[in-house]
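Field log, afternoon session.

UNIT: design team B
ACTIVITY: writing a sequence onto a fixed backbone
BACKBONE:
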């Protein structure tokens, strides 16, 4: 080896050594910044401070957990995974009404054809007890209609109702009354609301009933089924009994706080009317727009919708605690946004969250239950089990229906 080559090799070695030193030093600086919490400045955290915190009043535990179950109220927070619940809790001074529904389980949300479900397949699994393809409403993957818990309840003498903070023809409420192969068939879905099985519905979507492509209006058909048609919240307050079709918006219901106390008020009205039935009732209430907050990757949207949903849960739990014969189930159809909670100042209502997707995720979602029969909802199970557990809670004889056999 010549002298020149030896010098060159030595030079290369020295350069490599000093390069390695520099890299290590950079890493150390980054680690220290992370430990000091400076990473937050770089990571573009999404921070929101709510001004709409609510005080959570004490809900008494149910007096007799073995009492007969006369009523079921199912509350679905669309897109409400553990992080969305925790975002609400953290932004609300570390408390939610949901915490009083302390029989807790998880449901697995995959659909028949996709590991990542949509609201139609997820809603149909809970409503009808079957797995179906994404987009299908109240139908199996071969396009056979399947009877929903609401329809079964109606046939057994229960009063029934649907409340949603969106179009009432939207996928989740539709899963309980309609039977179509596509959630986008809003006008076809609307026709299923002209039903003897349904006593009350409150939501948006008036245009699907009276501004249709086939230029029919379904309002006279609803009236012939005995529905009182209501188009404003003021009119709804005045209604004290009977069948109710409340279509309070031409399209979707506005987001919170624009829509005001629509969801808790509508839920209270539904309970007031349905509970007049001696044989009990089934009511599904959807907090529809937690999902839209997730799709928007908006901490603000998720937190406000989540807190509005929790205030609605509070109204339901107060009724159930008083009644003693009502089973309350609070769950979701799937998680939306892959949300995570990074930091919070619970007292001040400040929350820092992030999202990993603008779509749904496949993670299992929580199920919270309160009232007689609540213990049955503990554990980890498929979303179809929500249907079967509700059916068992009502103790109907349903041996003839194919989806009712386990
Ligand atoms: Zn969604």
């Amino acid at each position: 080896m010549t002298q020149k080559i030896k010098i060159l090799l030595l030079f290369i070695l020295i350069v490599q050594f000093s390069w390695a030193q520099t890299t290590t030093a950079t890493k150390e600086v980054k680690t220290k910044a992370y430990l000091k919490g400076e990473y937050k400045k770089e990571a573009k955290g999404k921070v929101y401070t709510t001004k709409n915190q609510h005080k959570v009043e004490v809900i008494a535990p149910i007096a007799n957990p073995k009492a007969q179950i006369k009523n079921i109220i199912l509350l679905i927070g669309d897109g409400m995974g553990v992080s969305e619940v925790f975002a609400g809790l953290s932004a609300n001074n570390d408390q939610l009404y949901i915490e009083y529904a302390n029989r807790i389980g998880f449901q697995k949300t995959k659909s028949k054809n996709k590991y990542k479900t949509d609201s139609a397949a997820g809603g149909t699994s809970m409503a009808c007890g079957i797995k179906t393809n994404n987009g299908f409403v109240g139908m199996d993957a071969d396009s056979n209609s399947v009877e929903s818990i609401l329809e079964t309840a109606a046939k057994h003498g229960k009063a029934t109702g649907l409340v949603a903070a969106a179009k009432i023809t939207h996928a989740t409420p539709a899963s309980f009354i309609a039977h179509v192969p596509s959630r986008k068939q809003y006008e076809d879905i609307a026709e299923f609301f002209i039903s003897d099985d349904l006593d009350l519905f409150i939501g948006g979507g008036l245009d699907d009933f009276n501004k249709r492509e086939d230029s029919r209006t379904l309002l006279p058909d609803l009236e012939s089924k005995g529905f009182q048609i209501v188009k404003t919240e003021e009119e709804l307050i005045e209604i004290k009994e009977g069948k109710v079709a409340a279509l309070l918006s031409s399209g979707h219901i506005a987001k919170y706080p624009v829509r005001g106390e629509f969801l808790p008020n509508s839920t209270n009205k539904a309970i007031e009317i349905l509970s007049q039935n001696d044989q009990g009732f089934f009511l599904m209430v959807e907090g529809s727009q937690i999902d839209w907050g997730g799709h928007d990757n908006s901490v603000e949207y998720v937190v406000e919708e989540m807190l509005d949903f929790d205030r609605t849960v509070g109204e339901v739990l107060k009724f159930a605690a008083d009644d003693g014969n009502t089973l309350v189930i609070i769950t979701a159809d799937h998680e939306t946004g892959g949300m995570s909670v990074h930091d919070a100042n619970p007292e001040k209502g400040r929350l820092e969250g992030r999202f990993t997707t603008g779509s749904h995720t496949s993670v299992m979602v929580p199920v919270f239950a309160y009232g007689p029969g609540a213990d049955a909802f503990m554990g980890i199970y498929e979303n179809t089990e929500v249907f079967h557990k509700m059916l068992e809670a009502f103790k109907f004889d349903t041996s003839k229906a194919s989806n009712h056999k386990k």
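LOG NOTE: Residues 79, 119, 291, 295, 336, 360 surround zinc ion (CB under 6 Å).
NEXT ACTIVITY: expression trials, pending approval
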